[in-house]
Amino acid sequence: RKEVEQDPGPFNVPEGATVAFNCTYSNSASQSFFWYRQDCRKEPKLLMSVYSSGNEDGRFTAQLNRASQYISLLIRDSKLSDSATYLCAVFSGYSSASKIIFGSGTRLSIRP
Amino acid sequence: NAGVTQTPKFRVLKTGQSMTLLCAQDMNHEYMYWYRQDPGMGLRLIHYSVGEGTTAKGEVPDGYNVSRLKKQNFLLGLESAAPSQTSVYFCASSYSSTGDGPQHFGDGTRLSIL
User: Which of A8, A34, A43 has the CB atom closest to B106's CB atom?
Assistant: First the structure.
């Protein structure tokens, strides 16, 4: 089992729809969680950090479920410009073995 | 403020050639990373550095070497390039002193090995 897993998609949804996807992680001791957005042939860019209490930034909401070991990203009122690949990242450990692991990404396509 | 800058942007090498990729950051970040990204594989960590003068192996370090002689620069070297090293390489840095913070990425180096 991969340490961090995402459904590769693609998720193909109409403009204005709400879409959500999850990212599961295997290390129960993971401490920090992030969502990144990556456009085609571009670098990943931080979308938002994920806090234990959940957090919202405009149309985007991120949540953490420690019991089931996943984080989620919800996009409301989707725009054509939201089309991209969304990567989750999970940090585990504060030792020589500490590391951040990226998921392979979920591809989202918004259609007019 | 340039952030994280990678050079070169593109390069084509022949098998067996060597080259160095340069990553420079102007944010005074402690942590720096080198990743490769291949279709369907996501980002895989090659090497990283927790500060000037230190380096450590990541998930896929074989065939690569790194150096961090100055805090702002992190160099990735390929001593003898192989076709399997054809990839997009991303450098990243993080302000966190413990490695648990978000990362800022450069815009990548597209490397082809013939």
Answer: A43
CB neighbours of B89 closer than 8 A, spacing ≥ 6?
B6, B21, B34, B35, B36, B37, B46, B76, B108, B109, B110, B111
Q: Do B107 and A43 touch (CB under 8 A)?
A: yes
Instruction: Count CB neighbours of A51 within 10 A.
Output: 12
Chain segment B34-79, per-residue pLDDT in tens: 999 998 778 999 999 999 999 999 989 999 999 999 999 999 999 9
**Using the beta-carbon criterion (under 8 Å), do A42 and B100 form an inter-chain contact?**
no
